[in-house]
Write a structure and sequence with these properties.
heterodimer; A: 593 residues; alpha+beta; Immunoglobulin-like; 6-stranded mixed beta sheet; globular; B: 177 residues; 5-stranded mixed beta sheet; disordered N terminus; metal-binding (chain A)
């Protein structure tokens, strides 16, 4: 179902008739071949990933899901706005779908863009139960393209989800191959001094984490549309065409840094919602996020879509080419990212003395690029709007730095200098484009056409993202799901959520059923998303217009974090008119992650 | 369009010296063949209305004769700042770097232009004014006209060079025949 002929014109012609689409999905045991290994998994209509579901804004869809497994299943329509009892979370939206049964979902399509669907039962999603959703808008898109491809990523692991969870619980660093060695201790000691190095190691030990904890699940093969790097999924194009790539990260645990050497990518959608277009050389896609980009290859040559995992332990690779069989060079993985003391910034009980001491150590270790980057980040991080914030100080700087400029040199310098305000200052995760160019930041995301009026939130709810890596427990405000009270919101209010990440891991927080208005400091232009990354040592705000009754899941989308307890039920009190949702009859039949 | 509105827009988007297309005469520009030259109102053969939306034009293609002088009534019907600029793809590419600078310095802020910032002296007597005769830069709701005499160069597009807009597809073809 990969559309190789998805011209805008064609799809517009095809979609002019109003229809209530009916679709059938079967949930099946399937074989997954990554090129590196073959394993049994779960898929839809006999394959993993499942089909690309193509809907049209304004239609009502009916989807018959037949469970051919010998266990409970469910399908969650990730990012879709729909009645809560169609959201597909066992124990919250409905009881789940029993073996042999067919459950019919029915809901109106009230949005457009790129989304995805996946099982919300046990570890069926990491085992392969996912697929893509493409929704054509009622009106025209605010951008143009001649051709489109879904580019759906995952991190396929040879172990089943159940086995991975058991291993992580038993030994949290089971899948962490990047641990620091005794040799590194001595080389650090000679570089940074023995005492600094000892202090550094002790601080990390206190945190029950290790510097290499960028990824707690390594040893996967990155897949694009179900194909491993050697199987090389290929999308064909005619030189000069504009191609829309719909990137979806359906990984269980892995963030990817994506680039296409030789091509600029213009980001036009994030999480299915149009954003003011921004051209980048590279972007990071969090687990469960989607980004739509437009590329325009002008030459008769192949281009590699290269997706390195954030911790550089693996990659996915695909190709855009004028002809089947053509391929371009595949870059080497860059050096593994290492967390720094800055990524511990959110940890309670860090004493400032040791922080200051460590800062120096860091600066010595890092390149000078980092240091100049840090200067700017403080500037950007503090102001409300990026643009306003750059005002005068920069103007002066421009005077000196050769106004004969406006040339390439000063432009690219400006780009490189900026560090991303959504990362802790000096963070080891701070992204950098491989070619030294522009790396997308959340701060670049501005709504193209804001869905909601900007207004003051009615209240703020603080959610500390917490965990104990040594016991592999993950929680919110120190309490894991099974011990937690639901979060209660009132229909009609606008809630401001304050995420404080007190762990060393990045958490992609996903609120079901209602939009997450990400605060990038752009006021009315703040973008709406369904998944919000919160990096280590940072605080991120989002606001939600509570405009859907019922009860919803709210969780970290890293599969094993959600299962370990970084998960909440959200109950909406009240509703439009008197249609108070009946939510108390749902049995807890299925798994909740 | 009222006269006062026109004057306001014209004052805001007044003269400056950018690297290209500022001249009144084609030929001799670094990028090869010229896109034409500013036209005289008396020579206008017809008026074409171009509406700017977020982020596309209506129409997305026009046809002109070599040497024809056209009055463009350009209207921004979107919610963001947009440009209407006549040039070759290479000229647009060059101009996009300047526009990026305007965004980075807060001159273009989503749906608003910071006029004070445009006037500011950047050193070397340059400013970030946007005033080439082949283009207009408009806030939402603004209208302005461009009178342009086309050459016989057929490699011409009208384009919005606000960062990202051209790349997203905000350009139109000029067919010269």
């Amino acid at each position: 179902m990969k559309s190789r002929l998805g011209s805008v014109l064609l799809s517009l012609l095809m979609s002019t008739s109003v229809m209530a689409g009916e679709y059938d999905l079967t949930v099946d045991r399937v074989e997954i071949d990554t090129g590196d290994f073959v394993k049994e998994g779960i898929g839809y209509n006999g394959a993993s990933p499942g089909p690309v579901m193509r809907f049209k804004e304004g239609e009502t869809v009916k989807i018959n899901v037949t469970n051919n497994l010998d266990e409970m299943t469910s399908i969650h329509w990730h990012g879709l706005i729909l009645p809560f009892n169609q959201d597909g979370v066992p124990g919250i939206s409905f009881p789940g779908i029993k073996p042999g049964e067919t459950f019919t979902y029915e809901f109106p399509i009230q949005q457009a863009g790129t989304y995805w669907f996946h099982s919300h039962s046990g570890f069926q999603e990491p085992d392969g139960a996912y697929g893509a959703i493409v929704i054509e808008p009622e009106g025209r898109e605010p951008f143009r393209y001649d051709r489109e491809f879904v580019v759906q990523l995952t991190d396929k692991h040879p172990h089943s989800g159940d086995r991975i969870m058991r291993n992580l619980k038993m030994m949290p660093d089971y899948y962490n191959r990047e641990q620091q060695t005794v040799g590194e201790f001595f080389s650090d000691a000679s570089k940074n001094g023995l005492m600094n190095t000892v202090r550094d190691r002790m601080a990390w030990g206190d945190m029950r984490m290790m510097k290499a904890d960028v990824e707690d699940l390594q040893g996967f093969t990155g897949l694009i549309n179900g194909k491993g790097p050697d199987q090389n999924w290929t999308g064909l194009f005619e030189p000069g065409e504009r191609i829309r790539l719909r990137f979806i990260n359906s990984s269980a645990m892995t963030y990817f840094d994506i680039r296409i050497p030789g091509l600029d990518m213009t980001v036009v959608q994030a999480d299915g919602n149009n954003v003011q277009p921004v051209s980048v050389d590279e972007f990071r896609i969090g687990v469960a996020e989607t980004y739509d980009v437009i590329v325009r290859p002008k030459d008769e040559q192949a281009y590699t879509i290269f997706a390195e995992s954030m911790g550089r332990s693996g990659y996915a690779r695909a190709t855009l080419a004028p002809e089947e069989g053509m391929e371009a060079a595949v870059p080497q993985l860059r050096e593994a990212a290492r967390l720094t003391m800055a990524d511990m910034g959110g940890m309670p009980g860090m004493d400032h003395g040791s922080m200051a001491g460590m800062d120096h150590g860091n600066m010595d270790m890092d390149s000078s690029e980092d240091m100049s980057g840090m200067d700017h980040s403080s500037m950007e991080g503090t102001d409300q709007s990026n643009m306003g914030g750059m005002d005068h100080s920069n103007m002066e700087a421009m005077d000196h730095s050769g106004m004969s400029g406006m040339d390439h040199g000063s432009m690219t310098m400006g780009k490189e200098d900026k560090s991303d305000p959504f990362y802790a200052k000096g963070s080891g995760l701070m992204p950098k484009a491989a070619n030294g160019g522009k790396f997308l930041s959340y701060a670049d995301l501005k709504a193209q056409d804001p869905l909601y009026e900007d207004r003051e939130p009615t209240r703020e709810i603080e959610l500390r993202l917490t965990g104990n890596m040594e016991r592999y427990t993950w929680s919110i405000n120190g309490v894991k799901y099974e011990d937690a009270d639901p979060i209660r919101l009132k229909y009609g209010e606008r809630v401001r959520f304050k995420f404080v990440n007190e762990t060393m891991m990045t958490h992609p927080m996903h609120l079901h059923g209602m939009w997450s208005i990400l605060d990038v400091g752009a006021g009315q232009w703040n973008p709406i998303k369904h998944t919000i990354n919160v990096n280590p040592g940072t605080t991120v705000y989002m606001e939600t217009e509570v405009d859907e009754p019922g009860q919803w899941a709210f969780h970290c989308h890293l599969s094993y974090h959600a299962a370990a307890g970084m998960f909440r039920k959200v109950i909406i009190e009240g509703g439009p008119d008197s249609t108070q949702a009946k939510t108390d009859v749902i049995a807890e039949d299925g798994g909740e992650a | 369009m009222t006269i006062s509105k026109f004057l306001v827009a014209a004052a805001a988007i007044s003269l400056s010296a950018t690297a290209f297309a500022a001249g009144t005469h084609g030929g001799g520009h670094g990028h090869g063949a010229a896109s034409g030259e500013p036209g005289k109102a008396s020579a206008v053969s017809r008026t074409i209305t171009v509406e700017m939306y977020d982020n596309y034009y209506e129409p997305e293609s026009i046809t002109v004769s070599p040497g024809e002088t056209v009055r463009f009534m350009v209207e921004n019907k979107g919610n963001l700042v947009h440009e209407f600029n006549i040039g070759t793809p290479e000229m647009h590419e060059g101009h996009q770097e300047e526009m990026m600078m305007m965004v980075e310095h807060g001159v273009i802020q989503g749906g608003r232009l910071n006029h004070d910032m445009m006037e500011m002296d950047m050193g070397n007597g340059q400013s970030m004014k946007h005033d080439d005769p082949n283009s207009v830069l408009l806030e939402p709701g603004q209208s302005q006209e461009v009178i342009w005499k086309f050459s016989d160069n057929s490699n011409i597009e009208f384009a919005c060079n606000v960062p990202g807009h051209y790349q997203a597809g905000m350009y139109g073809d000029v067919k010269v025949q």
